[in-house]
Amino acid sequence: MVNMGLSDLVLVSPACDVQDAQAQGFAARAKHMLQKARIVDSVARALDGCVATFAASAKGGMYRRQAAVPLAEGSDLAIQKTAGGRVAVAFGPEDRGLVMSELLEFDRVVEIPADPAYPVLNLAAATTIACYELRQASLRAAGRPPLEGGDEPLATDDRKRILFRKLFDALDGVGFFGGQQNPDHLKYALRRVLGRIEMSVNEADIFIGMAQQIRWYVDHPPKRDATEGRGAG
Asked: Domain spanning 10-141 has what CATH number?
């Protein structure tokens, strides 16, 4: 939860003391999350005050399966609902998950689309995936890229023209196009390969620098020692 920016942990009738030294040890740097967790004695109490509630379940059954939505879709719905108040996403105990009587307490059921041959994930894995999807949904809703820096400006056509002019000149200098009946065919192929990339300004500059260095090396070959290549006497 801490990794993905979530902070409101509610535990329903936990089987052990959350302040126990072993529990605190497992929490590691998220210890503060465990220390401030709210403890309640029923699912209904946990959901009190929520404007929307989602239950994670991998169990089959026709009605349960028909009511379920994929986790990614449910995460988008959950984030939308936070505009009106608190939203809950709940998981059952490790050994049995949420039973039908508990699922009836929730508005929607969300499901991780795992392989049907073994769709049940352990609690830690399921929670991690759910928190990740909620994080992604939150970023989408805020209009932010999934990763900071993902909005780096793209190279414009004039910049790419400089790149290809220098790159083709450098490759010609090392003889890459030598012996070709029509060098333009190779140039076209290279242009298409690099054209499929959403190249940023910085990435274009890296390619331009590489091409310039190749050309410089062609024009300033290293001096060879006069004795280099001679066999032993």
From this structure: 3.40.1280.10
